[in-house]
Structure formats: structure tokens, C-alpha cells
Design a protein that fits this description.
There is one protein chain. By secondary structure, the protein is mostly helical. It starts with a helix and ends with a helix. Pfam families: BPD_transp_1 (PF00528).
Length: 320
């Protein structure tokens, strides 16, 4: 009995230890490594299919002769780039785009700041403030095609704007604002400003509400007036938002197509021709797809420069 009990309670020392088997941990480890890639794979495939592959194809087209109409395209190198860069029409469109973009972005910032300050003012009651917010944001709700149709009716020679100006005695006859080379670019710029300022207004209004009120109280104690408070407190608080939004608006405005195409189509006499409409006409009016691809690549390169500044700015803000 004693021997059996001892044998049961004390196993033999020379028994070989059983190694631990952990297949589940290995499987879990492998699955945890693959899982992040599986989760981002749909987004990666979409980016590749909708952005990277088309960009590579367009760059390839820009290095060939007329690829679609020619069954056997030939490699021409930078010949298309020299042709586009030597075209007066391209530089005219670039000048119009630059003027259109700079004026629009500056006006968006100024109007957005002014309206945001007004809506953030505590001297205005809550109900009127809510009504004005709803009214001021309406242009941002409309699509570009709706905005174009609306303003074409307003700027028509028999439209409301000409009627009001004639009633006030500012003009003596109806003016075709979108039909004259002298006024067409100004008209489409005003339309773009009207349709784009609510984005700045809402974003800056959120930024104003994030500035601590203690800073304004301290400025008032130091004897700072409204202008000094705006320069020393408001602008520094809004500076990151203004910088990021200006870069975004710069990208969006340079690529504006629908509004221009639906109002003037780049006319009259090329006075409102933008790089976007110039590229479109090369492809679908003249069927010069290689030159259109070249123009698109040049616009992409210019946009990438702005995008790099925007990404660097965002990274600096994240580090802070």
C-alpha cells in the first residue's frame, strides 16, 4: 500500500516533460498582423483604381502622340509639354485661373471673417442670429449647376440686376454681363465668391467660439479696443484655420469647372477660359487627347505643390 501511494503521489523523475503546444496563439498572432491590412484593403483598392491608375495612364498619354484617335501611338517624350507650354491659349487660361483664384480666395476669407464675427457677436439676439445663419449658408447648399442657372437669370440683360441698376440710374441700358469680354470674368468671379464664402464663414465661426473669453477680458483690462483685440487675440486664434482653409480653397478654386462651363463655357473670346475648361476643350472639342493629358498633368503638378504645403501644415498642427 505504501509503495503504491508513493508511486501515485510522486511520479518518476525520469519521465520526459511534455512540451507545451500553442497553435492557437500562433494563429492569433498571424491573424492580428493581417487584420489591419485586410481592413484598409478596400480603401487601398479604391485609391489605386480611382486615382493612382488613372493618373499613371494620363501621364502615359501625355508622352505619346494622339493615343486614342491613333491606333498605333508613338512615344514623343516631352514634345507635348513643349507644345502646350508654348501655346498662348494655355498661358491665357493660366492667367485667368490665377486671377480668378486669388480674388476668390481673398474675398472668401474677408467675407467669411466679417460674417463670422457678426454671427458670433453677443449683441445680437439668438433668434435673429439663427435666422441670419440659415440665410447666409444658403449659397453653400446649392450645387454649382443650380448656382450657374440662378445667376444666369439674374445677370441676363432682362434680369433683375439690370432692372435694379437701371432703376437707380447707374446704367442707361441693359448690360450682358456674361456676354462681354470686359465683364464676363468679373461676373463669374463674383458668382464664385457668393457660392463659396459660407464654407469660410461656418468654419471661422467654429474657430471664434473656440477662442477663450478670458483672452478678450484680459485684453480689455489692458485697455485694448475692438481693433486691437481683433489683431492681438482673434487673428492669432484663427490663424491655423485661415491657413488651412486658404490652401484648400486654393485647390478647389483652381479646379473649378462646372460653374465656368455652365455660365460662359470659357467665353466670350476666351475671357473666362480656365485651365479646366481649356483641358476639357482640348480633349472633347479638338480630340487632342495627348495635349489634354499634358495640360492635366501640368495642373496636377501645380496642385501637388499646394497639397504638399497643406499636408506639412497639418502635420505641424498635429505635433502641437
Amino acid at each position: 500500500m505504501t509503495t503504491n501511494l508513493l508511486t501515485r503521489t510522486h511520479p518518476r523523475d525520469d519521465a520526459a516533460p511534455v512540451p507545451p503546444v500553442r497553435p492557437h496563439r500562433r494563429r492569433r498572432s498571424l491573424g492580428s498582423r493581417i487584420e489591419p491590412y485586410l481592413m484598409i484593403s478596400p480603401t487601398v483598392l479604391l485609391i489605386l483604381g480611382l486615382m493612382v491608375v488613372p493618373i499613371v495612364i494620363v501621364i502615359g498619354y501625355s508622352l505619346m502622340d494622339n493615343t486614342i484617335t491613333n491606333p498605333t501611338p508613338k512615344f514623343v517624350g516631352i514634345a507635348n509639354y513643349l507644345t502646350v507650354l508654348g501655346s498662348p491659349a494655355f498661358w491665357g487660361a493660366a492667367a485667368n485661373t490665377l486671377l480668378f483664384t486669388v480674388v476668390s480666395v481673398v474675398a472668401h476669407m474677408v467675407i467669411g471673417v466679417l460674417f463670422a464675427l457678426m454671427l458670433n457677436s453677443k449683441t445680437m439676439a439668438k433668434v435673429p442670429r439663427a435666422i441670419f445663419r440659415a440665410i447666409y449658408i444658403l449659397p453653400w447648399i446649392f450645387t454649382a449647376s443650380v448656382v450657374a442657372v440662378l445667376w444666369r437669370l439674374l445677370l441676363d440683360p432682362s434680369g433683375v440686376i439690370n432692372y435694379l441698376l437701371e432703376s437707380l440710374g447707374l446704367i442707361h441700358e441693359a448690360v450682358p454681363w456674361l456676354g462681354l469680354p470686359q465683364t464676363a470674368l468679373i461676373a463669374v468671379t463674383v458668382i464664385n465668391i457668393w457660392s463659396g464664402y459660407p464654407f469660410f464663414m461656418i468654419s471661422l465661426l467654429a474657430g471664434l467660439q473656440g477662442i477663450p473669453s478670458d483672452l478678450y477680458e484680459a485684453a480689455r483690462v489692458d485697455g485694448a479696443g475692438p481693433i486691437r483685440q481683433f489683431v492681438s487675440v482673434t487673428l492669432p486664434g484663427l490663424k491655423p484655420i485661415l491657413y488651412s482653409m486658404a490652401l484648400l480653397d486654393l485647390l478647389w478654386t483652381t479646379q473649378q469647372f462646372t460653374l465656368i462651363w455652365a455660365t460662359t463655357g470659357g467665353g466670350p473670346l476666351g475671357s473666362t477660359e480656365m485651365l479646366s475648361t481649356y483641358t476639357y476643350k482640348l480633349a472633347f472639342n479638338s480630340y487632342q487627347f495627348s495635349l489634354a493629358s499634358t495640360s492635366a498633368v501640368l495642373v496636377l503638378a501645380a496642385s501637388l505643390v499646394v497639397a504638399v504645403f497643406y499636408v506639412r501644415r497639418q502635420r505641424k498642427e498635429e505635433r502641437r
